[in-house]
């Protein structure tokens, strides 16, 4: 059966293929749309390569030099944060807007706290404020470097297959994510991503202003419970907050146009969509 989401991603990759770049002895993947203007950097979650944000990259590419990365097969949040600073310096980028989702959102917050002068706007999306709770749950409670990779992949397949059955309208998205978990993300890259959450550091304080940060969340996110969403908003205050009333853990895949509108509106590139309604200080759609 045809999967239009994967077809769109593959068409995107034909125009913006992922390249390899070595940063501090580690092999990263990088999509770089090129150009010399202001920059935007995307940081994926556990189940996404650099191209997982293909819809948002295409939306921003006419306006920004857009970068998106795939993580290496070793290191964790502190090491990756340092390497991202090296990446921007090597590319001659003084500042970038930075969006991370899930694992990437945690990394984005750490990076912005460690290198505030490099971040023009911080977008933590569907993410964590600390990693204490995940450490006690599968698969993070396992020895992630010794557990059979088939077992780790099977855990993702079981949970996503159940979600696919519960949300048949989202089947294309789950099929795309299953290809990521099933081998498109290489073994040690997947282990490193999981371990980066398990060993994640305490987040340092942020220096956000109301105009320099934006949080994104979903009411129906099965992985980020309401208390954690509250904590992310509190840590990032006085950042503007946007909440999808539906979109699960991957609103950038399920509601790509509206997700892109958040980014472009907060960067002053287009008006905010009228679908967004300000309720209790949070934009909701």
TrEMBL record:
What InterPro entries is this protein classified in? AB_hydrolase_1 (IPR000073), AB_hydrolase_fold (IPR029058), Maspardin (IPR026151)
* Keyword match Cytoplasm: yes
- Could you list this entry's UniProt keywords, alphabetically sorted: Cytoplasm
Name all AB hydrolase-1 domain ranges.
39-127
Q: Which domain of life is it from?
A: Bacteria
What is a single cellular component term in the Gene Ontology annotation?
cytoplasm
Alphabetical list of SUPFAM superfamilies matching this protein: alpha/beta-Hydrolases (SSF53474)
Q: Where in the cell is it found?
A: Cytoplasm
According to UniProt, the name of this protein is Maspardin
